[in-house]
């Protein structure tokens, strides 16, 4: 049997003597059309970011949609890093500025566009090249090679296979703030942005000077560190050197928390 058309179904409804029912039906149709259009546009935008962190399908899109209920929107505001209530879990090194060894200028120009999906978090403008990403990965590999027993390079647990990440060695006792991410320290995304856990002091400076922003789940429920930030893709050689300085600062912070000296030179 052929499916009934919408008009055929509507014709069977006792609408003639029920103007309120007719009005409600018209209103429901009017409201559902833009909602469906928005959902389709949002889903296509989610897929356009590429795989990472969530299932690469409608279920992943739906899950990140649910997480919007608890996710933060003020990811470019540095204020949370300086609140005393937020600093205690990161003591005694959370308020230490490890970037002091690599003075950071204000990032030039506008920030890149970062869509509001909870995950994956990506920049869709000012993206880095494949060569830049390869150099970033090589830098992480060199750091792991210089720090056997402390650092190890393996696929990201947060982003999934295909995304290289630097971790604390499994033999190292994790600082409390890294337990939720199981010791993952930094990983590089396909468009050359990266996620790095740094000290609260450094996260404040990076955010204030336009180099980074928080993940939308950073500090939510204690699973992801508050100072887990997305650092924008390097646009030139000077910014690549600045990115290396951020990685070094993050490793010094985590190393201090774990009671391990990290060779970052």
TrEMBL record:
What range(s) does the Luciferase domain occupy? 183-249
**Pfam name, any one:** Luciferase
Annotated spans, Disordered: 81-131
Q: Which InterPro entries match?
A: Luciferase, Luciferase_dom
**Name recorded for this polypeptide:** Luciferase domain-containing protein
Upper classification of the organism: Eukaryota, Fungi, Dikarya, Ascomycota, Pezizomycotina
